[in-house]
Amino acid sequence: MVRPNKRTAGGLAAFAVMAGSMLAFAPQAAAAPVTTQLKCDFSDPTVKAAMDNKDSVTGAQAFTVTGPASGEAGKSIKLNIDPGVSPASSPLGTSVKITPTVTFTAKYDGGSATVSAVGAATTLTLVAKAGIDVPAFAANVSVPQKATGKVDLIPKTFGLKIEVINPPLTLNVPCSITDEAPPVAYSVTVPAASTTGGSTTSGSTSTSGSTSSGSTSTSGGTTAGGDTLPKTGPLDDALSMGLLGGTVGLLGIGGVLLATRRVRSSRNA
């Protein structure tokens, strides 16, 4: 067997570290940024008054979604969502807190479900007459319980909770995707669930040992046909070894006494 020299060993170690670093910083799965058509409803009187008495506004809305390449049905995955600039704009420049909510239609083989991504409240300074640029946010999204295989997330709604700091005012602005066929913003793969099981032998019962038809096996002994064999264990073994040791000891003492007598007899003769 040829042992690698120090230079070879060092090269292998460096390669292992480099490979580990590449795996550690492997990028998450991401779909390319998608652009949808959005309609924001200002029918609420408070919202309408704050939005220059407009009933609604429409325009383009981009979404960039990144996250893990795979997930598990019924559990959550963490997504990073960058909504980009909203068609909704503020008439005044002011500081607000914005809480974004994006809902997706999760389509998978055999069905679909609606899932939500709610971001944390973020303080933002709005620019007058400019579209609201909602900052990117992270959110946990539940993978549908029955999902399997490839799951596509398609933007459905984009809601904004806007809390004006001065004067105190809360506006809820609901917006809906109006595309006839909205684009897929992100996809995640859900592996098929694996099933494990065991075999059962008819007519037998097993506890801590092997089984055979018509008999019961336990760790202490075997029962078959109603006859019970005597059980043995550590205590029986200890007793046997004690008796054996005592017997050997007595034989040894007897041998010494016999040899001593013979020596004395030979000296007296």
Could you please say which CATH topology of the domain at 28-190 applies here? Immunoglobulin-like
Return the structural class: alpha+beta
- The number of distinct helices, counting runs of at least 4 residues, comes to 3
Principal-axes geometry comes out as: elongated
Describe the fold and architecture:
With 269 residues, the chain is α+β, with helices and mostly antiparallel strands. It has a domain at 28-190: Immunoglobulin-like (Sandwich), CATH 2.60.40. 22% of the residues lie in helices and 41% in strands. The strands form four sheets. Strands 1, 2, 3, 4, 10 and 13 form a six-stranded antiparallel sheet that branches. The longest helix has 35 residues, at 234-268. It is elongated, with a radius of gyration of 40 Å. It starts with 5 loop residues before the first helix and ends with a helix. The relative contact order is 0.14. Mean pLDDT is 75; it is low at 8-27, 198-245 and 247-251.
Concise summary:
The protein is of the alpha+beta class and 269 residues long.
Descriptive terms for the model:
single chain, 269 residues, alpha+beta, Immunoglobulin-like, six-stranded antiparallel β-sheet, 18 strands, 22% helix, elongated
Question: What's the arrangement of secondary structure elements?
Answer:
Elements: H1 6-24, E1 29-30, E2 34-41, H2 45-50, E3 56-67, E4 76-82, E5 84-89, E6 95-108, E7 111-118, E8 122-125, E9 131-134, E10 137-142, E11 149-164, E12 169-173, E13 175-177, E14 186-190, E15 205-206, E16 216-217, E17 222-224, E18 227-228, H3 234-268
Parallel strand pairs: 15-16
Antiparallel strand pairs: 1-3, 2-3, 2-13, 3-4, 4-10, 5-9, 6-7, 6-8, 6-11, 11-12, 11-14, 16-17, 17-18
